[in-house]
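S., here's the first fold you wanted:
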Amino acid sequence: MSTPSHNGLVGCVRGSRPNLVPRYDRSARGIYSDATKLATAELNNLDALLYVCHHSDEEVENNWLPTWLPQWQRKQDLAVDHFPLNHKGFRASGDTKASISLSLDEPLGVLTASGYVLDHVRDTTPAFTLETLRFGHRFLALCESIEAALNQVEPRPTDLEHTLIACLDRMRRPTCAERSVSGYRALKRHLLTRGQFPTPGLAEDDADASDGHAYPEALIRWLRNRRFFTTTTGSIGIGPKVMRDHDLVVILYGSSVPVVLREKKARADTYLVVGSAYVNGVMYGKAMEKHRAGGTADSTFRMA
């Protein structure tokens, strides 16, 4: 599959680059791969992984593209599938820079990066679809599944309400935990009495009603097509809708958010990139500080 128009355009990005030149013999798959690797090397981070968004388990397991490669050809789907967790304040890997193997001659589908395993996924709830976030009874049913998951964790985690919106409002601005709790409770009261979500953007003079509108708008942005999950050590978070029990949550150096990986079948040394995640308590470098202080060994992840 060859797309010369893509190949020619890549060679024009940001002026002349010695390793980024038009290659009309390359397929679209090869061009996307080369461009993403080079952008990663130039920026010294792995934030391209923020834009990885798989539609299904089948797409993760049998994709025509490597799973670590965003499907740039359908970038318009991001507004439908998920909003990237790209708040500039997130620094899950601290001040580390990406440590990757970059060679245009290496196998096309493999990207190798350094980091460490943060945790393993213990339990996941059903995904929060747009329909779930429109109809109150479906959302309340999912809240019950979250409560069931939390009941299996000791000690019971806090900050649930804050975690569900990745501590951000709908405009990507940090919001406080108290506001999240207030908004979550106001939303549940609204759903129990009226049965459906408040109308987005509706202004309210009453503070309680205002929280009840602002919180669901943040939910729709950050929770849509993601799952709530717990980990084996008792952390909580939200991750891609295709994640499942026993997936790994890792910190990759140069990534602003944790990344969910899955071991590739029949290849124990190779992983599939499921997507990015928000994990309560680790988004601002705290886990990285603990990792350094403990002297834990780093790992190398081969992502296909």
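And the second, which I think is the more interesting of the pair:
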Amino acid sequence: MFDKLLGVEERFIKLEQLLSDPDVVRDQSKYQKYLKEHAGIAELVETFRTYRKTLEDIEDSKLLLEEGDSDLKDLALDELKSLDDRKEELEANLKKLLIPKDPNDDRSVIVEIRAGTGGDEAAIFAGDLLRMYSRYAERRNWKVEMMDSSLSEAGGFKEVIIMIKGVGAYSAFKFESGTHRVQRVPATESQGRIHTSAATVAVLPEAEDVEVHVDPGDLRVDVYRSSGAGGQHVNTTDSAVRITHLPTGTVVTCQDERSQIKNRAKAMSILKARILDKMNRDANASRSQARKDQVGSGDRSERIRTYNYPQGRVTDHRIGLTLYKLEMVMEGDVDEIIESLAAYYQAQALQENETAF
């Protein structure tokens, strides 16, 4: 492991040289790539250098214990204890920093919410999840942009797709993928019976153009008249767009904008994100589950989280976390859930790295 850290340090030094190379500076694409890599390992290298210096200081203190007089030995013992504590702290930090970082963590994110089992109540719940995520994003000063939606007659959404733009959005939302279950008395329930409904959430990192090349010849683009709400102009012009990626059979529709050009641009963003997601899954199946596994079927029994209104609680079944502050959660106060999930999966990764030192 020490050799691996030395290799990272060598790469860090090489990157510093590259970033000062005039030819690299002129090539902004290459410069930004190296700058991002440099920033990504800077803390690890700094911590390693401190750790290596601490090991040297420990050896010096041990030598002083062997060769020094009695007064110096007492000082060396105190210093050695402090250095040993520092060494343990630095080793713990290095283990965390050595955990491979998800390359998508800093990206903006596309969140797809679909009503599952439960009919109208499931569609209303999908709308509630949209509000929850939108409020949370606003608290983080991230921009929420509607990409596509299909309204339900009873309120809420059969399907809604949003983009959340902001650095680190994917790192926060990536644990939201799966089936969300709600237990409550619907407004239409005259006898006060509790119903269980579900909505599925899929989270995709935004794709960059340099990563995903889509051959225009592989696309079939259909335009048609929008059917949803949006005003007279939307419903009387062929502004809605449906794009089919023929090699994969992926179909994306967008009709939220009045402009066919804007709808096409949004549909392409969603399409590229889905293609990138598939590329990531194919490249590393152990890290990224298949999309159908990610969201499940929408059945009540497949769930990652339950929102129980009669008891005012939210339970995340993956980590056994239960909070009795449902109203606050539905208003976007989901920090405790997201942080607990991140800590849980980091602890799992740390456990796998326990033999590093």
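Why I say that: The two ends are 7 Å apart (CA to CA). The chain has three domains: 2-97, 109-210+296-347, 216-282.

Talk tomorrow,
H.
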